[in-house]
Design a protein that fits this description.
Blueprint lengths: L11 E7 L4 H14 L9 H4 L15 H4 L8 E7 L5 H8 L11 H6 L3 E2 L21 H18 L2 E8 L16 H9 L7 H11 L4 E3 L9 H10 L2 E4 L6 H14 L3 E11 L2 H6 L2 H19 L5 H4 L3 E8 L8 E9 L5 E9 L2 H22 L3 E2 L22 H15 L9 H5 L3
Parallel strand pairs: 1-2, 1-4, 2-3, 4-5, 5-6, 6-11, 7-8
Antiparallel strand pairs: 7-9, 9-10
Helix pairs in contact: 1-4, 1-14, 6-8, 7-9, 8-9, 10-12
Length: 439
C-alpha cells in the first residue's frame, strides 16, 4: 500500500457557502460556532463523534476519527459566501425558525458579522425565489469572473490558507445533459454566449475550480457531474463531490432497500410522500425544480436492487415520489413511505415508515463533515470525483460508464477504509474472525 503524503492542516480554512442565509447553511454555521464555544455537541457529525476501528478486532483500537485523521479543527474555520438576500446570518436564523433563541442568542455577535456577497442568480432556474442581492454582468462568463474576484478577496481579507466551496442553495430546474456539457471548451464558450443551459451552479463550480477550490454539490443540480467540469477538475487537480445531501427519506431507502436485497425479499411497490414548509419546500413546489429532485430520489432503488440481475424480485416495481409544500410545518419535514414487499411463496407483506425529521438539523452535520473531508482530500492530493464520500449523497457522482453505490453500509465501509489508507493503516475486510475458523 502506497503511503499518502498528507499536508498538515495548518492555518485558516475558508468555507464559502452558496446560499449563506438559507436554513441549512445558517444552521450549519450556528452549530459550528456553538460546538466551538462548548455550548453544544456535534451530534450527527461522523468526523467529530464516530470512532474508527484500526487493526485486528482483538487489538481493541477504536479511536475517534478526529483524533487520528489529520482534519482541520473547528476553530480554524472561517465562514463566508453568497446569497440572494442581503441580511446577516443572525437575522436569517431568526427567519428560518429552525433553532430556538436559547441555542443561538449567545452567538449573536459572531452571527451578525456574517453577511453575504451578492449572488449569481437567475430566476429562470429557481422559479419560486426572488433575488434582490444579485450580481449583474454582460455575460455568464463575466459573472464567473466576478465570483473569482470574490473568492480571491475573501481569501486575502481573512488570511485563509485553503478554501472549500459548498452549495447549500436551492434546487435548480431540471436540465438534461447536452452537447455543451460534454466538453470543457464548449462549456466555456457557452458561458461567453449566455447559453440557456448554463445554470448558476455551473458558474460557481467553474469559478471554484479555476481558483483551485474543491467544490461540494449539496443539491441535485446538474453541475460537476458533467464531463466538461470533470475534465476541468482533473486538469486543475481538484477534488469534487456530490450530489444532493442524503438526509431524511432517501437515507431510509438506502438502509431498507439493502435489507430486502440481502434477504432476497421481493419488492412490488414503494410510495413516498413528503410535506415540508421551508424555502426548499417552496422551491420544490415548482415542477421544474421538483423534476430535478425526483430524478435524484428515484435513482436509489433501482441502483441498489439491480432488477436486471433479479427480475423475479425487482423487475416490476412501482416507485412514486411526492413532495408537497405545506407552510405550517416550516423546517420540520414529515415523510411517509408505504412499501409493498413479498416473501416465501410470493406472500405479500407491508412496511410503513413515518419519519418526522428536521431537514436542516440532519443536513448541518453533513455540511461540516464534507467541508472537513474535502479539505483533507485536497491536502492528500486527491482529484476528480471523491467516490469515498458517496455516504453523504442521495445521487452520488460517478463516471458515465459506472453505476453509483447507494448502499449506506457499503458506503460507510468505503469511506472508513479510505480514511485508514490516509493514515497508513490497513483497510478492514472483516475477515479476521473467518480466518480464525481455519486455524
Amino acid at each position: 500500500m502506497e503511503k499518502i503524503n498528507v499536508q498538515t492542516p495548518s492555518g485558516k480554512l475558508g468555507v464559502l457557502i452558496v446560499g449563506l442565509n438559507g436554513a441549512v447553511a445558517s444552521t450549519f454555521i450556528a452549530g459550528t460556532y456553538a460546538v466551538r464555544k462548548n455550548l453544544s455537541k456535534p451530534i450527527g457529525s461522523v468526523t467529530q463523534m464516530a470512532t474508527i476501528r484500526l487493526g485486528q478486532r482483538n487489538e481493541n483500537r477504536f479511536p475517534k476519527i478526529k483524533d487520528v485523521v489529520p482534519l482541520a479543527g473547528l476553530d480554524q474555520i472561517v465562514f463566508g459566501g453568497w446569497d440572494i438576500q442581503d441580511e446577516d446570518v443572525y437575522d436569517s436564523i431568526v427567519r428560518a425558525e429552525v433553532l430556538q433563541h436559547r441555542d443561538f442568542e449567545l452567538l449573536r455577535a459572531e452571527l451578525m458579522k456574517l453577511r453575504p456577497m451578492k449572488a449569481v442568480f437567475d430566476q429562470n432556474y429557481v422559479k419560486r425565489l426572488y433575488g434582490t442581492h444579485v450580481k449583474t454582468g454582460a455575460t455568464k462568463w463575466d459573472l464567473m469572473e466576478q465570483l473569482r474576484k470574490d473568492i480571491r478577496d475573501f481569501k486575502a481579507a481573512n488570511q485563509c490558507d485553503r478554501l472549500v466551496m459548498i452549495w447549500c442553495g436551492s434546487t435548480e430546474v431540471f436540465l438534461p445533459m447536452g452537447d455543451i456539457h460534454m466538453d470543457l471548451a464548449k462549456l466555456e464558450q457557452a458561458m461567453k454566449d449566455n447559453h440557456a443551459d448554463i445554470a448558476p451552479s455551473m458558474i460557481y463550480a467553474y469559478a471554484a475550480l479555476t481558483e483551485k477550490v474543491p467544490y461540494i454539490n449539496g443539491a441535485p443540480n446538474l453541475t460537476t457531474d458533467m464531463p466538461a467540469l470533470l475534465q476541468y477538475a482533473d486538469k486543475q487537480n481538484m477534488p469534487v463531490c456530490g450530489k444532493d445531501f442524503k438526509t431524511g427519506q432517501t437515507m431510509m431507502k438506502t438502509v431498507l432497500a439493502p435489507m430486502f436485497k440481502t434477504r432476497m425479499l421481493g419488492l412490488s411497490g414503494w410510495f413516498s410522500t413528503n410535506i415540508l414548509g421551508n424555502r426548499d419546500g417552496e422551491v420544490l413546489d415548482d415542477p421544474g425544480s421538483f423534476k430535478t429532485k425526483e430524478e435524484s430520489k428515484l435513482s436509489v432503488i433501482d441502483t441498489i436492487l439491480q432488477p436486471e440481475l433479479y427480475p423475479e424480485l425487482y423487475g416490476d416495481i412501482y416507485h412514486k415520489v411526492r413532495i408537497n409544500y405545506y407552510p405550517p410545518r416550516k423546517d420540520e419535514k414529515e415523510a411517509w413511505d408505504n412499501i409493498d414487499i413479498f416473501g416465501w411463496m410470493g406472500y405479500p407483506m407491508q412496511l410503513k415508515v413515518n419519519f418526522l425529521c428536521r431537514d436542516s438539523i440532519l443536513a448541518a452535520p453533513i455540511c461540516l463533515d464534507l467541508v472537513l473531508l474535502m479539505d483533507l482530500a485536497q491536502r492528500c492530493g486527491f482529484k476528480g470525483i471523491q467516490h469515498w464520500l458517496s455516504f453523504y449523497f442521495k445521487s452520488p457522482m460517478h463516471e458515465m460508464n459506472q453505476h453509483p453505490e447507494h448502499d449506506l453500509f457499503i458506503q460507510n465501509v468505503k469511506m472508513k477504509n479510505t480514511l485508514r489508507m490516509i493514515i497508513n493503516e490497513k483497510p478492514i475486510d472483516f475477515l479476521d474472525e473467518t480466518i480464525d475458523l481455519f486455524r
